[in-house]
Amino acid sequence: MITLGIDCGTQSTKVVAMDCETGGILASGGESYGFVEGLPEGAMEQDPAWWVAAADKGIREVLSALGSRAAEICGIGVSGQQHGLVVISKEGGVLRAAKLWCDTSTTNECREITEKLGGNAGAIALVGNTIRTGYTAPKILWLSKNEPETWDQTATLLLPHDYLNFWLTGEKRMEYGDASGTALLDISSRKWSAKACDAVCPGLTERLPALGSSAAACGTLRESLRKEWGLAKAPIVSAGGGDNMMAAIGTGNVKVGGVTASLGTSGTLFAFSNKPVVDAKGEIAGFCDSTDNWLPLLCTMNLTLVTEHVRKLFGWSHEEMDAVVDAEKPGAGGLTFLPYLTGERTPDLPSARGVLANLSLANFTPGALARASVESVLLGVGYGLNRFRELGVPVSSIRLTGGASNSPVWRQICADIFGVPTIGLDSGKGAGSGAAIQAAWMVMAGSDLGELCDRLISEDASTRCEPDKNNTALYSEALAKMGDLRGALATTSFLQ
Asked: Which domains are assigned to the chain?
């Protein structure tokens, strides 16, 4: 039995074929893409047609690699970048480019919605979250205000993974996990909040798709695609979910005690919970997961987005940058870096910019800057981990996923900052694998997802890193210094 996992990310859409007996990845494919060019500062958009084209290319590459074994494909799951706004006409066409999770052009709309809901406390009481620029709700208000003609033509609002499900099956629906990232869902009751919808704009509720269980399939592959791809039988298409929800499944984070850190363009930290986790400060997102449970989550917008910029600045390969970072002593010679190159989501600073402090002739070097860039973005994740602990989320070890988790240097710095062991997985499993596992769960009706994950996912003991107590203490001080600097600049034009 084989299932496909489609992972629609910010930089590319990838497809993997998973052997549901061993958990092995049999084939993969996909394509990269960029962003719509020429937009105002802060606006980040993509054409959903790019996702479809990349998914189609990836599936065809996988089918070619599988050969005769393609006949064993029985399920498809989709993981999608969260929060993106896809607007659909009554005829089913896309009306404009999708505004993405990393679009920070909706600061005024966040403020407007928050005021209508009675401030942050009112928003948290209604939907379990504050209203952030990353979320979908302010994007909807922005669209209705700035492009009223498009809003009037909009019949249905979808998230990126929902749109790919629509392409695959013809069904328009949302599941609880990804829907909780819209800031329109009451995460405790798993129902749309009428008050939140009314605060965004009139007529919103009629444009929301059907909402259903994450444990229920979206449908089956539409006949036209089955024929195009030469499949003998139409596979089941699972509910799918947001990339973080699928990464939770793909890393086996489906039981109490599970914690995952995903190290990609952004940094995320999430844990499984069998009850809602609502942060009164609004720093930890109170999301549902894609197994009909909950997924408290930290997201920072700046992770490899920052370190890749530094790497390219000096013309290093990934291996060269790792070597430079490893050669530099922990603490980067005292450099304090606020890495908010595109604003930040946690802490909530959408308009902030980066700051380098405590520069001297001794630490104004490529090595110190490289080390500071890696340490600072991981300290941002450590900031959220401390909040997890304050909220009573148990943390004994952390599984790592995402591109940067392949680096031994990054893994050790993670362990030192987090103060607990970190470990990678046998084949770098993440969102795409999680989507494939969720699809297998749908096909194997009545199976236990935890047992399925235990069978298909295993840790790679060679990647385990134990924290160095001295470094952990050093990084605790560094995190405090970042907080002091951030506080000192909070009322300036740098951090607003």
From this structure: 2-242 (3.30.420.40), 252-428+466-496 (3.30.420.40)
